[in-house]
Amino acid sequence: MSARRRRADVDQPRVRTPFALRPALRLGRRLAFAKVGRAALIVALIGIPTAGFAAVSVVVQSTQPTTTEQLGYDLGHAAAQMRAMGPDLPGMRQDPVAWQYSEAAKGSPASKAEGDLRYANVLDHVPAGAVSIPVGSASIVLSGPKGPIGLMAVEGAVWSKVLAGHWQVLEGTAPTDRDELMVTPATLTRLGASIGDTVDLTDPVTKRFTITGTMRDLGSDPGEQGVFLPWGTTLSPTTGEDARGVSDVTVYLASDAPTWSEIRQLNAHGIVVQSRPVVLDPPDERFPAAQRNSSLGWYLGAMALLGVFAMFEVALLAGAAFLVGTRADTRSYAIVTSVGGDRRFVRTIVAGSGLVLGVTGAVLGVALGIGIGALAFRLVDNGNVSTWPGLHVPGFLLLAIGAAGVLAGLVAALVAARAATRINVLAALRGSLRPAQVNLRAERRRRVWAPMLIVVGTVMTLACGVGVLLLNDRPVQGDDYAWVAGAGVAIGPCLVQVGVAMCSPWLLALVARLSTRLGLSARLAARDARRNPVRTVPVLASVMSVVFVASVAITWSASSHAQFVRDYEYRTAVGVATASVSLSDDEGNSVGYDAALTARAAKIVSGVLDHDRVRVLGVVQEQAGKGPSTVTLPHDWVRKDCRTNDTTSCSQYLQSQDSTTPHIWTGTVDDYALLTGHRPSARVRDALASGKAVSLWPEYAHDGAVRLDTFHDQTWDSMTTTSGERPDATTTIPAVLDVQSPRIQVGVFMTRQTAERYRVPAVDGMLVTTQPTELTPTQWDELSSAWQSQGGLDRDRWGGPTFMYETGPVDAQGVVKALVLALAAAVTIGATAVAIGLARSDGRRDDEVLDSVGAAPVLRRRVSAWQAAILTTVGAVIGTLLGLLPIRALTLRFTAGPVGTSHMPFVADWPFLALLAVGLPLLVTVGTWLTAGRSRRVAVRRAL
C-alpha cells in the first residue's frame, strides 16, 4: 500500500459499525441453554437464594397487618372505640392512626401533671344516643367440677355481632340473661364442665352462672384461658370501677364514629379514640415518632445486608461457571468473531446469556419462594390474628428480590464477557488452545494492591473499633458518629478479604509446592487448582466469606456470653427457687412482711409444688415504703468506690436494697444448706448452734463479728446508704466467715433464736424450695389460680407467688451457633460441589489423558477429594481467622471506661471455631469422596 493511500486512510473518519443488539441477545439466549447442565447450575445458583429471600419476605410480611386487618381486629364491625388514657386535664393530643400514642403539649396542664390525678369516666363521654358496648376486665375465681380456678375475666357483651372479628363465638349461643356466661375451650376443659352446666363465681362476688357456649379472643392463642361475663357482674355498671376503685374500661361505639374535631375535644379530658373514618383518611397531624416501625426497619435492613452477601456469593460461583462455559464455547465465539462480530457483539452475547439465565433463575426462584412462604404461613398460622393477620405477598419487595437475582446473573456474566473478547481466534478455530498466559501488568497491580488492601483493611478495622468504643464512652451522645465508625469495622474486613482473594493464586501455588510429598492425586489436584484460578479462586473466596460471617457470629456470641457469665450474680445455689412475700401499698412500694400472710402463702404453694417441702425463712425489712418505717442493713466495712460492677467486692448486691434479694436471713442449718447447695462445714454448724451469725460476704465481717445498722423514719425517697449515713442504732453479733464460690445473694445468715436474742427485726417473708427445672407454664397457672381462689383479702396485700429459679449463667446461644454452622456448611458444600463439577467439566480432556495412560477410576475420585480439601481448608482457615478481627477491634480497650459500664471481653470459642476451620473441610472432603463418580468412563480415542 502506498504512502498516499495510508495517509488517506488515516485522514478518513472511522465509521462505527451499527450494533446489532437483537441478534446478539438471540445468540446469547441460544448459547445459554445449549449446555443444559451448565444452564441448570447457574439457574439453581440464582434461583435457590432468590426463593429463600422470597419465602422469608412472604412470611415476614404476613406478620404485618394491613390497615383494614388492624381495624377488623381492633373494632370488629364497630365504628370506634374510646378509653381513658391520661388524667382529666387539657393538653393531651393523640395520633390519629396510632391512637394509643399520645403526647402532652408543652406547658399544658397535662404536661405538668404529678401525683394522684383524677381520670375521666369514659362512660360519661359517650355521644348522646350512640349505641355503646363497654368492656372491662376483672380478676375472678370460678369454681367448677374440677375445683376453683383463678383467672382474668372479660366483662361486657363481647359476643355481640358488632364486635365479631375481635371476639368470635365458637360453639353454643350468646348469653341472653345476666346469669349466663361464656368461656374459652381451654377453660371449659379445665373446669371439667360442658356447655349447659352451671359454675359458681366465688370471688369477688358470689353468683351461679350457666355456660351457654365457648368463644375466644381472636388476638390470643387458641389454648389460652378466659371467661366472658355480662357487663356489671363485678364492675360498676356506671363507672366500670372494681371493688378497689380501679377502672380500665374500653367503650365500643356501634355506628357513631367521632370526627377528628370531636376526638380532639375528648383528648382534652384524657380520652383517646380510634375512629374508623379517621384512621382510613387521617388528617395531616401525625406524630413522627408514631409513624416509625422499628421492627420493620430492622427486618428490611437485615434483608438488604443478607441480600448483598447472597448476591456476592452468587456472583462468585456463577461467575466461575460462566468463565468455564466461556472457555468451553471458545470455538463458537471465535466463529462469531471470524465472520465480523466485534467485541461489543461478543460481549453482548455473553451478557445476554447471563441476563437470560438470571431472569430464568429469578422468576423460578420468586415463584417457588412465594409457594414456600405460603405453605410455611399455613403451617405456622395458629389462628392468632395479632401474630398472623393474613397471607400477604409483598409485590414491590419480591420485584426487588427478583431484580437482585437478575443483576447477580448479569454481573456474573460480565467477567466472562470480557474474557470472551480476548481469545486467539485462529488458535480457537484450529482447536489448539493453550493455557492462558500470565498478564504481567495485572500481576504487578496485584502485587501492589493485594498487600495494601490487607494492611489498610486491618488498620481500618482496629482503628474504627477503638473509635466506636471511645464514641460510646462519651457522656453525651446525640449524633451518629458511632454508626459511621461501626461501618468502618464492617468495611475493613471486606477489604482484607478482597486482598486475600487477590493473593489466592499465590496461596494455591504455595499449596501446590507443599503437596509434592502427599502423593500423585494431591499433586494433580493442587496443580489443577493453581492452573485454573478462574474456577478455583471464586470458590475459595466464597468459602472464605461465608466462614468469615460464621466466625464473626460465633465469636460475638462467645464474647457476649463471657460478659454475661462475668457479670452474673447467683441468687442462691443452682436448682433453688425463692419467692419474696413482701407486702405492697397501692403504688407498689414495699411496706414490709407479715408472718401470717407468709404462712398462708406457704400452705397454698405447698398444694401446688408438692415435690419438695416449701420452707419459710425469715428476712429483715430493708426497703422503705411511702410512710416512715425502720430499715436494718448489714454494715459494709470495705466501702469500695467501684468504677464498674463485678460479682465480688463491687457486686450490685452490696449496693442494692431489694425485697426480693434481702441481705439478712434467718432459718435453720438445713435452710442454710439449701441456700448454699452443700452441707455446711462443722465450723458453720457450730457457729449457728452457739448463737453466732454467718457472713457469706467478707465485706460484712470485721473482727469476728457483723454489725447491723438500723435507720428509723425512712421513706422510699430517703437517702439511706450503708456508707454515707450515720445509723440510729447498731447491733454487733459474733460471726464466722463462709464465703461461697460463686457468691450468692445471701449476706448474713443466723437462726431465729439468734435474731430474737439480739433483737434483730426478722419476719417470716421468704419461701424457698427446690425445683428440678424452671416452673412450667402449667405450674405458673396453677399457682396463680390457687392464690386467686384461696388468697382471700390477702390478694390485695400481695400479688401472689413469683418464684425466682436459679439456673446459673446458661448459654442460650447454642441454637444460634448450630444454625450458623449449618448455614456455613450448606454454603460450603454447595460451593465445593460447584467447584468439583466445574473441574470435571473443564478437565474432561485431562480425564481422557488419564484414561489413555491406564489410570484407575479411583484416581479421579482422589483428585476430586483433594481439590475439595484444598479449596475448603484454605478458605475456611482464612475466613475463621479473619472473623476474629472485627470482634477484637470492638473489644480493644486501653482504658477502664466510664463509671458503671460493663465492657465485653474478647473470647474465642475455639471448639466451635475448630469445627468451622477443620471439621467443615473434613466433612466436605469426605462427602466429595463418597459422591464422586466410581464407574470407569470410556476414553475418547482421538489424537492428543
Describe the protein's architecture and organization:
- The chain is of the alpha+beta class.
- Helix content is 48%, strand content 15%.
- It is built from 27 helices and 25 strands.
- Strands 13, 16, 17, 18, 19, 20, 21, 22, 23, 24 and 25 form an 11-stranded mixed β-sheet that branches. Strands 4-5-10-7-9-8 form a 6-stranded mixed beta barrel. Strands 2-3 form a two-stranded antiparallel sheet.
- Strand 20 and strand 21 form a beta hairpin.
- Helix 3 (36-61) runs antiparallel to helix 8, helix 8 (294-328) packs antiparallel against helix 17 and helix 14 (481-502) runs antiparallel to helix 17.
- The longest helix is centred in the middle third of the chain and has 38 residues, at 343-380.
- The chain is globular, with a radius of gyration of 37 Å.
- The two termini are 42 Å apart.
Note the gap between the termini.
42 Å
Structural class: alpha+beta
Low-confidence stretches: 4-10
Tally of extended strands?
25
Q: What is the share of helical residues?
A: 40-55%
Question: The biggest beta sheet, please?
Answer: 11 strands, mixed
Number of helices: 27
The radius of gyration over CA amounts to 37 Å
Name the quaternary structure.
single chain
The coarse overall form would be globular
Task: Please state roughly what percent of the residues sit in beta strands, choosing from under 5%, 5-15%, 15-25%, 25-35%, 35-45% or over 45%.
Answer: 5-15%
Give the mean pLDDT. Answer: 82
